[in-house]
Amino acid sequence: MPVRKAVIPAAGFGTRFLPATKAQPKEMLPIVDTPIIQYVVEEAIASGIEDILIITGRGKRTIEDHFDRSIELETFLERNHRDSLLSTVRDVGNLANVFFVRQKEQLGLGHAVLQARHHIGNEPFAVLLGDEIFFGARPALSQLMDVYDQVGGSVVGVMEVSADEVQRYGVIKPEKVNEGLYLATDLVEKPATHEAPSRMAICGRYVLDPAIFDILETLPPGKNGEIQLTDAIRILGKWQPIYACEIDARRYDVGDKLGYLQATVEIALEREDLGEAFRDYLTNLLLTRSEVSR
């Protein structure tokens, strides 16, 4: 069965970006002029996804508003002949079939994914975390979906990280199948550096069998007292093979302040309307700071 549906968990508090996220979702923070979550939705669409469910929570209404039409704004732009902006605004509202459900309690990523059970039904589905964005020749999710089509089993996206970073991720024990593809013989959520089975970290993209929902339904809390998706996938791996696809793309953890700044700078430099002027500004800034520090 093809993968047609995707789930984007976006219900977290965004504590790493307080106070900015006290009154707005972290997923709506802009990378230049585009909200983080729009990049994630666009990746899903570019991968062939037809139906997107965003898991939200209290205080996340602006995400719903962003993917809805804004008649007043459209009327204003049309009246003032702002045709380019009008097209941009309308395009956002027509990106895909986007649906929303609330996670009423913050009980972890696994619990957030569980909220999608009735929407997904008995189909394989994708999960894209709302605070990681990827840029490459092919969409990151599309790479996982190709693997799923080949092997017919659940697939997690992975990237190699440094030894001191493994404690921030779910980490797999890999058995190489071929270049860039592994069998995940074990998975550990946020291991200590000396306990990590490898440096291959799960990085926010999944294609999952719907059997995961039965596991999440009864899964006890794990690391940090939360229901962990990694723990559920580990149990699923006892019944069916779990594959890991090494994603070929640039990844930004935009839920982290440094990652957010890196994404903003690098994406701005690649923009036709900003890149040259911004590059000149950064060059002059570095020269000026260098002279001051002498």
CATH superfamily: Spore Coat Polysaccharide Biosynthesis Protein SpsA, Chain A
Largest sheet: 9 strands, mixed
Radius of gyration: 20 Å
Strand order of the largest sheet: 5-4-1-6-11-8-12-10-9
What is the 3D shape? globular
Helix content: 25-40%
pLDDT below 50 for ≥5 consecutive residues: which ranges? none
Structurally, how many domains make up the residues? 1
Secondary structure class reads: alpha/beta
Number of strands: 13
Rounded mean pLDDT score: 88
Distance between the termini: 64 Å
Could you tell me the CATH topology label: Spore Coat Polysaccharide Biosynthesis Protein SpsA, Chain A
Task: Give a structural overview.
There is one protein chain. The N and C termini lie far apart (64 Å). The chain is 36% helix and 24% strand. By secondary structure, it is an alpha/beta fold. It has a single domain, classed as Spore Coat Polysaccharide Biosynthesis Protein SpsA, Chain A. Helix 3 (71-79) runs antiparallel to helix 4 and helix 10 (257-270) packs across helix 11 (275-293). It is built from 11 helices and 13 strands. The longest helix has 19 residues, at 275-293. The relative contact order is 0.15. The strands form 3 sheets. A 9-stranded mixed sheet has the order 5-4-1-6-11-8-12-10-9. Strands 2-3 form a two-stranded antiparallel sheet.
